[in-house]
Amino acid sequence: MSEEEAGSGHMAWGIWVPKRPNGRCQWPDEIKVRAVERARGGETIAAIAREISANESLVAQWVKDAEGPAKARKGAPEFVEVLAGDTSARTGAVDHCSIRLGDVELSVPPGYPGAHLTEILRAVRAAR
After folding, report:
1. Residue 54 burial (C-beta neighbours within 10 Å; 0-12, 13-18, 19+)
2. What are the transmembrane regions (predicted)?
3. Range of the domain at 105
C-alpha cells in the first residue's frame, strides 16, 4: 500500500505531500518553488499557506530562504579594502593621536591600551 493510498499526506496544487511518521509534512521542492513565486507575484503568505494547508511561518521561511544571503546583507556595510601608504618616513613624526568627541579632545600616546581607551570613550559619551 502506497503512502497516498494509506492517506498519510494530502494533495496541494496537484502534488502529493507525504507526512512523515512524526506527523510533519515532507514538502516537495516543487511546492516550495511555486509558493515562493506566488509570494513574489504579490499573493499573501497567509493565502498561500491556507491554500496548501501549511503553516504561515513555514511558507515565510521558504520565501526568506529563496532570497538568500544577499537580501540579509542589504543595507549592511560592504567590505572596503584599505591600503596604507609607505609610513616608514613618518613613523617618528607623530607622538600621539587626537580624538575629538564634541567639545572634548583626547590625546592618545602610541601603544595606549585599547581596552582603557574604550572605557574612557564610553565615559565621555555617557557624560555628554
Report:
1. buried
2. none
3. 97-127
Residue 59 lies in a domain: yes
Whole-model pTM?
Answer: 0.50
The answer to whether 74 and 64 have CB atoms below 8 angstroms apart is: no
Q: Give the integer Cα–Cα distance in Å for 38 and 49.
A: 11
Look at the chain and report how many structural domains it folds into: 2
Cell (9 digits) for 16: 502529493
| Domain match, 7 and 68 both | yes
The pLDDT tens digits for 37-80 are 999 999 999 999 999 999 999 999 999 988 876 555 556 666 66
12: helix, coil or strand? strand
Kindly compute the dihedral angle of the four CA atoms of residues 13, 18, 20, 26, in this order, to the nearest 10 degrees: -40
Judge whether 26 lies within some domain: yes
